[in-house]
Amino acid sequence: MATATLIRSPIAIGTWNVDAAHSKVGFSVKHLGVSTVRGEFNEFDGTLEVIEDLGSARVHGTVRAGSVDTNEPQRDEHLRSPDFFDVERHPEIHFESKRIEPVDEDTFRIVGDLTLHGVTRELELEAEVTGAGQDMQGNERVGLEVTGDLSRGDYGMKFNQALGGGNVLVSDKVKLALDIAAVRDS
Q: How far apart are the C-alpha atoms of 29 and 69, rounded to whole Å?
């Protein structure tokens, strides 16, 4: 008879809600094959549910695509257009975990489905617990740094322009960087 192995979680059992005021959902992409453009989304929410152990945990989050901000209004409008996020047809980006696996004591791999630009594909993220404790109001908090990469083309974002020297206007590879502060439901 096989027995289930519990995977100890560095995060306490409970429901943890993303504190958007103390979190950031960011990305970076090569521009012209030379520089890196960094941006973030200003409107998002998410939840981490640790039910029994890390193996039973679930993560889900939603980003409002129209809240994209690269600190350049004209570029942001282009990113909202059908060439990229097409926010009129696809106003939200969704992530739903399928499994969470430990990497080491404070790091874990999150595999889930990302729906972006109307396309759903599996995405692998790495998350590191950066701290835990109580705030001044007695709320339990946890910090996470989450990273990953995706291909714009995999999600139907094909807009680009070839440049001299083999470079393109916008790289296909997008690096994700999320700094998450979450508060445990009481």
A: 13
Average pLDDT of the chain, as a whole number: 87
Q: What is the DSSP letter of 168?
A: B
Model confidence pLDDT, tens digit, residues 83-96 = 889 999 999 999 99
Q: What is the DSSP string of 78-134?
A: HHHSTTTT-TTT--EEEEEEEEEEESSSSEEEEEEEEEETTEEEEEEEEEEEEEEEE
Give the pLDDT confidence score for residue 149 in this predicted structure: 97
Domains and CATH numbers, the chain: 14-184 (2.40.128.110)
CA distance 109 to 166: 34
84-to-34, 65, 96, 116, 160 alpha-carbon distances in Å: 20, 10, 22, 10, 10
Question: Is a pLDDT exceeding 80 seen at residue 163?
Answer: no
Chain segment 65-81, per-residue pLDDT in tens: 999 999 999 989 999 99
Element (H, E) at 28: strand 24-31
